[in-house]
Design goal:
The complex is a heterotrimer. Chain A has 15 helices and two strands. Chain A is mainly α. Chain A has a domain at about 20-235. Chain A has a two-stranded antiparallel sheet. In chain A, helix 2 runs antiparallel to helix 9, helix 3 (about 55-75) packs antiparallel against helix 4 (about 80-100) and helix 12 packs parallel to helix 15 (about 295-310). The mean pLDDT of chain A is about 90. Chain B is mostly helical. Chain B is about 75% helix and about 5% strand. Chain B is globular, with a radius of gyration of 19 Å. By secondary structure, chain C is of the alpha/beta class. Chain C has helices spanning about 5-20, 45-65, 85-95, 110, 115-120, 150-165, 180-195, 210-220, 230-245, 265-270, 290-305, 315-335, 340-345, 410, and strands spanning about 30-35, 70-75, 100-105, 125-130, 140-145, 170-175, 195-205, 225-230, 255-260, 280, 350, 355, 370-375, 390-395. A seven-stranded mixed sheet of chain C has the order 7-6-8-9-10-13-14, sandwiched between helices. Chain C has a five-stranded parallel sheet with strand order 2-1-3-4-5, with helices on both faces. In chain C, strands 11-12 form a two-stranded antiparallel ribbon. In chain C, helix 2 links the parallel strand 1 and strand 2. Mean pLDDT of chain C is about 90; it is low at about 20-25. Chains in contact: A-B, A-C, B-C. The interface between A and B is large, with 41 and 37 residues.
Chain lengths: ~300, ~290, ~425
């Protein structure tokens, strides 16, 4: 119950901020941070709970964005339909990729997911309807009342998506699914031997993960009023979606949220004050630092400190 | 698409040269990942770093091949350091660490890429040499000299490394460590030292591969991304640990890419390596000559 | 500590003076002009020179007392020639830096993502050497400073020159990006109208670095004209590939829409490989615009200090002219309101160092002035040679013509 109250409060807070006089840039940057909350949470379902390091976040994200573009250009679809479409197609992609690659161990799975990114990017580059390598300019529809600008509306929308994604992750973690996934992470052979349906669980995690990433990508074309393949399938999305849960902590649903809010905010601040490159450097350095020094992330550090002070 | 047998022949020819080049840039990975099981996704990034070092030496008048050879020693040391760090932090601590080791190398690749952007900017960098910019005329066919040079160096490199691993004492120790580490330990050899040495060699080889990279074409910091696909495609197709397989796999990739380029255009070429990788992983993950 | 009565009096007088004194020019908030412009990446070679010219205009305006009694301040960021950085840069300029006026990035490709944004926010945008970037969005407050209008204004000269020498077939090589595709779409229509047969056509991804396969295919197709639409990185790679393996003896005319062969650093590094190429330009030495030569002399001094393109033929005069147009519009309407400025720019003819400029309803030059010139007798490693008008012989249009084109291409390269 406590969870749901906080979740609703957060959405209300987001909406309230969007209706206030806060500087527009806050929403422009905030939208990106919230996108990463969804991406990190989605990644963690397969990467943290089941232990399958997925490097293909950029593929699911980009496909979500392009699905939304197609729906918008072809049918003039509203945002809700675009997001549903993005989630559906990326979910299917997740299922397909899972079917092909989940039999592979560790690094092979990771490299296979990188391959999926480039193949998706190449397909979009060769598809004239969505602009090919040139890209597509998109004119947004009118913003819905009571929001002043489209960016503010997208900010609240992404807050809703974030709460939704975290709720799904929380449900999976505490349910039978979560136990199965943890068993797979601890020892896949033992899980198989004790009757856990490992392939079905992995496919499930991969599909849900893909769906959420697609949903996060779908509003992107409207956010920028522009879409092009190289930035939509940028490997930086993959590294960030992996770094944030590793920094926050992969065992619990709050880990990716902490990681995304922390790292995401730092990234946005650095981008505005220093430069875009340093922002990517920050991700790389923090990832390496945490992976080497604090493998259980911020949650792990927190647990250690509270134990220390008891 | 305009098609003729002349074009096809030229494409295959170019593909052979390109393929040998791909084999040479992947052979370092064949050792570090194929033999030593290190999830070294930062291998292309280190190679691109080597290409930039070649560029720097080129500004002082060094011929790129000479620069590449000169760089092999410092890169060898760099490789040993990186492996030592990786071993102490990850490999020692068991299988959980495998996932984190992978994340570490991805982080490292990004740090190298951004470091290069900060140091050199996003502009393309070229290197000048007498053999870059002209081509050999064989009747109607034109073969760029830079490709011939890269082909030659690549062939020498690949054959030398294969001979080293099968004929010399340390080389065979490296292969032994890959096949049966406990047995080696029982015989009194220190597997960690051997693996460190091997990783150093793989990195040293990457320095020369980087020199060839900048001979073949201009480099820019994000070049490592597409080479992740190419190098892993070659190594996986070859079968982990097979050096001769690397040459064969490289040729297959080079020729396929060249033919796709001719038939379908440059917009499909980057997908060839990644597509090949997925196909191999899906159908025959142990590759052609895998152990 | 007790202040004496005298000290209190001084403080009081100071406060009163501070409160009622008229604010001097220097203290009033400046008019901020914002731009994201390539300083690195494929367009960086041109962008650096362009930014220097804009900075020169800002200095000149401030020396004359500013605009509307306020100083002009330029805020610029490097877009790295990457269109993906533009939404972030311009949102930051507008919402964090609070700029009053916008100048577009240099080049069509970085400007494309900006068009929906400025239309949606109702902002005036001064275009900077873009090509037809407004044709989908149809923004009514767009004023592009570039000597061309539509594809015909660009390609006519090139195609006609080929036809005069009996060309019947054409090959089109275009990068898959906004500029090249806009130009290629137009060129295809024009080639058909002119009765030319397309024997080879290829769109390549902008990141392509190896053109040997494409040049081989072009050679095999034996075209009379090769129309290339490329950005600096690919232009350089294509010139090198042509130099390396040759394009065949059938080709009469090669070039047309290669961006980057106007940047001095690229011209100097390609040297003799340029010979024979017929390419577009905005200004070559010898063309007489009012005030441009005096500007280039001043520019050359500053460019050497800033370690930037010392000749500055291609972009700097036009970028300075953007500033001049803004200046005239602001002074005439006595405001920085975007609608009023747009109205003025639409209805009036502005006087600039690249001649008089008048805009049509699409925001493009009503009277295009693109020249096509052939490189001749260029030697390696020499920057100053390009001051000589004989190195770039203008073959079109007639009013600026200085010579006849030499065909075929292979002969002109010697």
């Amino acid at each position: 119950m406590k969870y749901w109250i906080s979740a609703i409060l957060l959405v209300v807070l987001a909406a309230g901020t969007a209706l206030s006089g806060m500087n527009e840039y806050f929403f422009f940057a905030g939208y990106v941070v919230l996108t990463f909350v969804v991406l990190a949470t989605a990644w963690n379902i397969l990467g943290g709970y089941a232990g399958y390091v997925n490097f293909g976040t950029a593929a699911f994200f980009g496909i979500g964005a392009y699905t939304a573009t197609v729906l918008f250009k072809w049918l003039g679809a509203p945002l809700a339909v675009q997001i549903a479409g993005g989630a559906l197609i990326s979910g299917l992609l997740g299922f397909g990729v899972g079917l092909l690659t989940l039999r592979l161990r560790g690094i092979f799975f990771a490299i296979a997911t990188v391959a999926v990114i480039f193949i998706c990017e190449t397909l979009m580059i060769n598809w004239r309807y969505v602009g090919g390598a040139t890209g597509l300019q998109l004119l947004r529809p009118e913003v819905l009342a009571p929001f002043e600008t489209y960016t503010r509306m997208l900010f609240v929308l992404m807050a809703l998506l974030a709460v939704g994604a975290v709720s799904i992750a929380r449900y999976i973690q505490t349910s039978w699914f979560g136990r199965g996934l943890r068993a797979i992470r601890d020892s896949e052979e033992a899980a198989e031997a004790s009757g856990v349906p490992t392939l079905k669980l992995k496919l499930f995690a991969c599909t849900v993960s893909g769906m959420l990433m697609g949903a996060a990508g779908a509003p992107m074309p409207m956010y920028l009023s522009f879409i092009e393949p190289v930035s939509s399938f940028n490997l930086t999305y993959s590294v960030s979606a992996l770094a944030m849960p590793m920094i926050g902590g992969t065992a619990h649903w709050i880990g990716p949220v902490i990681g995304a809010l922390l790292l995401g905010s730092v990234q946005q601040i650095v981008t505005v004050t220093i430069s875009n490159e340093i922002n990517v450097l920050v991700v790389g350095v923090l990832l390496v630092l945490f992976v080497v020094l604090a493998p259980d992330g911020v949650i792990g550090l927190f647990k250690k400190w509270t134990r220390y002070f008891k | 698409m305009f098609f003729s047998f002349d074009l096809l022949f030229e494409a295959v020819l170019f593909g052979v040269l390109l393929g040998c080049f791909y084999a040479a840039v992947s052979i370092g990975l064949s050792v570090s990942f194929g033999l030593l099981d290190v999830p070294h996704v930062a291998h292309p990034a280190i190679m691109v770093f080597g290409a930039y070092c070649t560029y720097l030496l080129g500004l002082y008048g060094f011929d790129p091949i000479v620069a590449g050879i000169v760089l092999m020693a410092p890169f060898f040391l760099l490789g040993m350091l990186v492996y030592r760090f990786y071993y102490e932090t990850f490999e020692r601590r068991g299988s959980e660490a495998g996932v984190r080791g992978l994340a570490f190398f991805f982080g490292l690749a990004f740090i190298i890429e951004v470091g290069l952007i900060l140091a050199f900017g996003v502009d393309q960098r070229f290197v000048e040499a007498d053999y870059i910019g002209s081509s050999l005329s064989l009747g109607d066919y034109r073969i760029p000299y830079r490709m011939l040079v890269a082909f030659g160096v690549a062939l020498v490199l690949t054959i030398s490394l294969t001979l080293y691993l099968s004929k010399t004492f340390t080389g065979r120790a490296i292969k032994a460590v890959a096949q049966d580490e406990p047995a080696l330990r029982l015989m009194g050899a220190n597997p960690v030292r051997i693996k460190q040495w091997a990783f150093g060699i793989a990195t040293g080889v990457s320095a020369l591969a980087g020199a060839m990279l900048i001979i073949v074409g201009p480099v820019e910091p994000s070049l490592d991304r597409v080479y992740i696909g190419r190098t892993f495609a070659v190594v996986v197709l070859a079968g982990l640990g097979s050096m001769t397989g690397t040459l064969a796999a490289g040729l297959i990739l080079g020729i396929s890419e060249s033919i796709v380029l001719m038939l379908f255009g440059a917009s499909w070429a980057p997908a060839v390596a990644f597509g090949l990788l997925l196909i191999v992983l899906g159908i025959r993950p142990q590759g052609l000559f895998g152990r | 500590m007790k202040l004496s009565r005298r000290s209190w009096l001084s403080v009081a007088i100071g406060l009163v003076i501070g409160a009622v004194a008229p604010v001097s020019v220097a203290q009033q908030n400046p008019i901020k002009v914002g731009i994201g412009i390539a300083q690195t990446g494929t367009l960086g070679g041109g962008g650096k020179a362009a930014l220097l010219a804009i900075q020169m205009w800002v200095e000149d305006v401030n020396q004359k007392g500013g605009l509307l009694g306020r100083k002009v301040e330029l805020i610029s960021y490097d877009d790295q020639s990457n269109p993906a950085t533009i939404p972030g840069i311009y949102t930051k300029l507008l919402d964090v830096d609070g700029v009053d006026l916008l100048i577009a990035p240099y080049g069509t490709v970085p400007t494309a993502p900006l068009m929906p944004m400025v239309k949606q926010r109702g902002l005036l945008l001064m275009g900077n050497f873009s090509f037809q970037v407004n044709h989908k969005v149809q923004h009514d407050m767009w004023f592009n400073n570039a000597p061309w209008n539509d594809a015909s204004s660009w390609s006519d000269g090139f195609i006609r020159a080929g036809q005069k020498h009996g060309a019947k077939t054409i090959a089109i090589l275009a990068a898959d990006q906004e500029f090249a595709q806009n130009l290629a779409n137009g060129a295809r229509v024009l080639a058909k109208k002119a009765g030319l047969k397309t024997v080879y056509e290829q769109n390549y991804p902008p990141t392509t670095v190896d053109f040997s396969s494409m040049i081989r295919a072009v050679r095999a197709a034996k075209p009379d004209i090769v129309f290339v639409m490329s950005y600096p990185n690919d232009s350089v790679a294509i010139v090198r590939a042509v130099n390396e393996i040759g394009v065949g003896s059938s080709v009469k005319l090669f070039g047309g829409g290669m961006v980057g062969l106007q940047f001095t650093p690229i011209m100097a590094s390609l040297g003799s490989s340029l010979n024979g190429i017929v390419n577009y330009n905005s200004y070559v030495p010898g063309i007489k615009y009012p005030g441009v030569e005096e500007f280039l002399q001043r520019y050359a001094k500053k460019a050497v200090e800033a370690k930037v393109d010392p000749l500055g033929f291609y972009l700097p005069p036009f970028n300075y002219a953007i500033g001049q147009m803004l200046e005239q519009a602001i002074k005439a309407t006595n405001s920085i309101d975007h609608k009023k400025l747009a109205d003025y720019l639409r209805k009036n003819e502005m006087k600039t160092i690249v001649g008089p400029i008048r805009y049509d309803k699409n925001g493009e030059w009503a009277n295009p002035r693109v020249v096509q010139a052939q490189f001749r007798g260029v030697v390696d490693k020499n920057v100053e040679q390009f001051r000589d008008p004989k190195k770039q012989v203008v073959i079109y249009p007639d009013q600026y013509k200085t010579g006849e084109v030499v065909v075929p291409f292979e002969k002109a390269r010697k």
